[in-house]
């Protein structure tokens, strides 16, 4: 047994080291994990070029890219913030229902397909952004567009949701 008494630090630590002037300042998104997960596919759709630039910079930096790639990282953050702001302006009710469902269901997407469908339809109609899951085969219906959800505790989603009017949303949903 140790005779030393435990000491706990309950203070928030802040790094006050200023960033170089070459790195543009940016405000953070200010969103928790549930809203970020809810908007993640739309962020990926709009911000793909910035994400690719950032990942290329990180790959080329060989592990020393924290400062070298800060400018590209800030562009990704600004783009993600703009997507979240646009969704909040145009589809706030649907967005809130979806991320609250995710928050209440351990962030498992399959529990929240109905609010997700409503959010996807709103974002597509008002912002023109479409949810696409990378790596989905062309002949396969993406999981979020399936009429019958296999894994769900919600009996209504096992029967399949009521059809939504998603004209032009997906050309693969009918296959």
pLDDT < 50 stretches: 156-161
Radius of gyration, rounded? 21 Å
Mean pLDDT: 80
For the largest beta-sheet, the strand count, sense and barrel status come to: none
Q: Count every helix, treating DSSP H or I runs of 4 or more residues as helices.
A: 7
Shape: globular
Strand content: under 5%
Helix content: 40-55%
Would you write up a description of this structure?
With 175 residues, the chain is mostly helical. Helix content is 49%, strand content 0%. The protein has 7 helices and no strands. Helix 2 runs antiparallel to helix 4 and helix 5 packs antiparallel against helix 6. The radius of gyration is 21 Å and the shape is globular. It starts with 32 loop residues before the first helix and ends in a 16-residue tail after the last helix. About 3% of the residues have low confidence.
Entry keywords:
175 residues; mainly alpha; 7 helices; 49% helix; globular
Structure summary:
The protein is mostly helical and 175 residues long. The protein has helices at 33-46, 48-61, 65-68, 70-90, 92-104, 113-127, 155-159. Residues 156-161 have low confidence and may be disordered.
Topology (elements, then pairings):
Blueprint (H helix, E strand, L loop, with lengths): L32 H14 L1 H14 L3 H4 L1 H21 L1 H13 L8 H15 L27 H5 L16
Helix pairs in contact: 1-4, 1-5, 2-4, 5-6
